[in-house]
Amino acid sequence: MLEPSDSPPALNNIPAADHETPMPSSRKRSAHDQSLTKLFVLDTNVLMHDPTSLFRFAEHDIFIPIMTLEELDNNKKGMSEVARNARQASRYLDDIVSHAVGEIKRGIVLKRHDADTATGRLFLQTEAINGHIPASLPIGKADNHIIGVVMFLQKQHPQRQVILVSKDINMRIKAHALGLSAEDYFNDKVLEDTDLLYTGVRALPADFWDQHGHNVESWKKEGRTYYRVRGPLCQSLMLNEFVYQEGERPLYAMVKEVTAKAAVFETVRDYTHAKNNVWGITARNREQNFALNLLMNTEIDFVSLLGQAGTGKTLMTLAAGLMHTLETKLYSEIIMTRVTVPVGEDIGFLPGTEEEKMTPWMGALEDNLDVLNKTDEDAGDWGRAATRDLIRSRIKVKSLNFMRGRTFIRKYLIIDEAQNLTPKQMKTLITRAGPGTKVVCLGNIAQIDTPYLTEGSSGLTYVVDRFKGWAHSGHVTLQRGERSRLADHAAENL
Description:
By secondary structure, this protein is an alpha/beta fold. The protein folds into three domains: about 10-185, 3-Layer(aba) Sandwich (Rossmann fold), CATH 3.40.50; about 195-265, no CATH class; about 285-494, Rossmann fold (3-Layer(aba) Sandwich), CATH 3.40.50.300. Helices cover about 30% and strands about 20% of the residues. Strands 3-4-2-1-5-6 form a six-stranded mixed sheet. The chain has a six-stranded mixed sheet with strand order 7-10-11-12-9-8, with no helix packed on it. It is globular, with a radius of gyration of 28 Å.
C-alpha cells in the first residue's frame, strides 16, 4: 500500500509489477505491492453518480482521462442532481490537484487528511494518446477515446491490472469485447444480495429454550412480560428485533436489551384482537402485528416497512397516524410525501397548488382513507362525512422538491414509495425531523421505477441497513399479502 510520504511515479512509469520505478524518497513501493495494487480508469458517469468515488478505491491508483474532464465540464451546468455531482467532482479534483507536491504528471497522493481511506494516487492524462482506438470503433465518440486510453495503459504496463470503471453497461460490453477488464462501480451498493437485507423478524429455533432456558429471569411491568435469557444466540440479536416461536405456547416478543451473553425480551401487544384495534384496523398476520407494535410505540422515532403490494403498509401506517394525531394528540398533523416517478409515460405538467399537483400521486392515500372511514359503522353517513373532513384537515400532502431547509416539529411523517429515493434524498428527508416527530418509510424494493437505482443502491435499502440495531428505530419486512386472493396470486405468478 502507498503511504502519503511516497514520491509519485511518472505517468509513463506508473509502477508495474515487473520493475520498480526509482523514487527520490527513502521508502519505495516493492514489486509485490505493485502487483497487488490496480490502476482504475474512471468513466465520467462514475464521478457524476458519486463524486466521492475518488476516495473509494483504498490503496489502488486512479487514472482520469482528459475526455472524462471534458465531459464533466459539459455536464456541470444546471440544477439537476447530475449537474451538482459534476460540479462537486470538479471541486474534489481541484482540491486534490491544489495540494499536489511536485509534478502533477507523476501522480498525486489522494489522501488529503486522516479521514480519507484512499492511500493510492491520482493520475491525470498529461499527453495525447492517439492511435489506440480500434478501427471498428468511431473516433469521435468520448466513450471510445476512454477505451483507447485503457488500451494504451494496458500496453504500457502489461504486468499490472488496468480496469475500466463505468456505470455504462454498453461501454463495459465494448471493453470486454476488446479483451479489457471493465467493472461496474459497486461502492454505492449497501448489499450485493438483497436476500441478506435485515428483515427485523427472527424465528427462534426449536431448541431455543433448551439452549437458553437456564437461569431465565421473568418479570412483569405495565402489562408486559419480560424475559432475560442467556445463551449463544444473544450476541447476534439486534435491538428492537422481533422474535417468535410457534407451538403450544407461542412467544411473540421484541428484543429490548442485548449484551454479549444475555438478552431481554418484551412480549408484544396483540393487535390481532379486536379490543386492541387501531382506528378500527386489526392485524391479520404475525408481521402486521409486529408492524403495529412499532407504529404505536412512542419510543420508536423511525420505522421502515418493506413488503409487496397488498401487505397493508400504508393502511396500518395511516391508522396508527390517525390514532396518535386525533385520539392521543401526540402529533399535530400527518405529512405524507412520495417521489413522483411515473410507471409509464409522464402525463405532463399539472395545474394548481402544491397539494393539488400531488393529488394524482396520492391515490393510495385516498384508497386507504376510504377503508379507514368505513370502520365506524355506527356513525352514519353524516358522521362519516364529518370524520372524513376532520381527517383531511390533519393530513398534508407535500412534494419532495420543497423539503430542503424545513423542520418538522411534532409531525407524523410518512414517506411512501421510498424505494425510489436515493440514499442522499433519504438523508435529506429524515434529517428534517425535529423534536417529537416520527418518520415512517414504506416501500417495496422489487418495484423500483427510477432508472438509475437498483435494489442494492436504493435509499430504502440504505436506511434499513444503517438504522438496524438503533434503540429508537424498528423495521419489519411484511411477507403475506392481505389485499385479495387475486392480488396475491398475481404477485406470486406474474
